[in-house]
Structures
1.
Amino acid sequence: MSSVHVHVHVALLAVAAAILASCQQVECGPGTIERGGSCVAADETVSMATCGPLTTLVGDQCLPEFAATVCDPATTDEDLDPATNVTTCIGSGGGGCGAALACPQPAAGKQTICGQIFDLETGEPFAPTDGTGTRCDPMAPTATGPCSIRVHAYDAIAFSTNPNDPNARLAVGDNYIDDCGRYRVSDITLPASSPFIALGIDDVDMTRAGPLGTTNATGVATPKAADVATKDVEAFIAPRSTTDQWASNGGPPINNGIYVMMFRAKRAPSKLPQAGVTVIKGNGSPTPSTDHYFVATDVTRQRLDAVATSTGANGSALVTNAMLSDGYSGTGGIPSECRWSGHAAATLPFIVFIQILRPINASATQTCPL
């Protein structure tokens, strides 16, 4: 081969290499991106599998479906729904009892608990018909109604062991209650050893605390959880007139304390009560000598039936002499794939402690259909 032919052949190979290199480094114009050596539209959707919940694939990027929410701190509170990761701005200027009450995320390492206060006897919200959603002033409590009571947070186990222990009360960032009976205990310092936080309700005016005021001292408990806003925790008032009715119907006096077990037919958030449930201790044995059940047809919690052995229409039972070491649950009223949640509880003098129990899976291999 002549030297001319060699030079031409080398030149052609160099040109081909250059063309190949340029094909491997495609420069795409505005509005397009390179994919597989070609320029395609930037909004071409290829696969949703690479994008997480509430995001959409745009070109080669997963973008949020919703714009970031920024609430006006002067007029609203941020309320995050953990199920959807969507933040809603809820007005902080009253709005009446029908308006939503924000339950914003707590400070790091803290917990916020929010909910509605109910009348234990009737099951109705503890709110006047003319409530406006105005925050109560603890320095100027009313004689009756939601603004006559207060809500405090406690280490549940420490309080149950010794209600007079000053260290049982937990520090909080803010303690809110309004004239609709809605409450919010913000930025609770978590108990060091107890797995539960108790909310204690009594009169603001300590000279009327206990049976003398709007309510007997009442309590509810919920699991502690750092960095969580726990919503819709039901709390209750139980006036002296209610506990006096129980005692006059053969029920326990308030003097030694009462544990109220409320069985709900469905998993949260249903409030449907479950009839036909008998109280049992943690070892599975019934407690007939310490149980009291209501008249089967009563939806309110007023009249007790001395011979009843299970819950009636209101799904409730009263228990006396409860001890933390026993643990309490229920049997009956639900399918075999389900069992009732179990809880520790203790009866304390002049305190009505309320616990809501719900169906859960009977075992790791069974699914409760409720």
Note: The first strand starts at residue 32 and ends at 35.
2.
Amino acid sequence: MSNLSLIERSSEILTKYYENDIQPFLDAMHPEILWIGPAENQVIQGKARLEAAFRAEQNTLHFELHDLVILPVETGSPRAVEVILLFRVDTFWPDGTANQVKQRIQLTWVQVGGQMYIRVCHISNAIIYDMRDGIYPLNYSDRYQTQILAGQQRAPRLVIKGAHKSTLCLSWEEILYIETFETHSLIHTMDGTYEALPSLRQIEQMSNGFLMRCHKSFLFNPHHVQEIARFYLRMPDGSRLPIPEKKYTALKAAIIPFPLIKDIVG
């Protein structure tokens, strides 16, 4: 089987899996498959044991898959191919709460009797930490130290329509600021920037006062303000949000009580 065929098959298996159809994955499993899940102690070896574990689950969750990237890796052997899948996945619980994580899956395909089977399936979550760090977590923060895996944290989230028919499911606490973008909005978070279809005013109404307005084109999270000066707010990513001169005094008084604010203005 060619690498292209394995990419297509891996994509189909993943897509079906998040549509709650696990049969294509079960059919592709090697008899001695090693499955390593993203949470502690999630290690199962053998198709019989893994299939029994899946069959025992009573899954009432709904998932949406986004931004799938698939990377084949040559192993130097015609009998084995590594496939890396990078994507975002939304999880929706029956109680209406939701969560989104970046996830990575490594599939090791091996050839047996002319057919390719998954010998290793290693799943990991891309844990977010301080944006100043490269390889090592030199700048530990509360966000890094307390980050936990999908399914264990279900904080209130902004769930809205994004660009390209996507659904955005973003933690309110991790939103830095939002700006007007043509007729839509750009949401800047600790993890990246996302285009949302609703207008700035619509999102402001959804926030129920959690976000504040510093300018007609900007909403911001007061908990993330690092500096207030004449006439701007500085955010953790270095962005400076404008403040109209007439609103400066009132806005400064409103946000000073929030934590993490560094006021360098006398």
Note: Confidence is low (pLDDT under 50) at residues 144-153, 261-266.
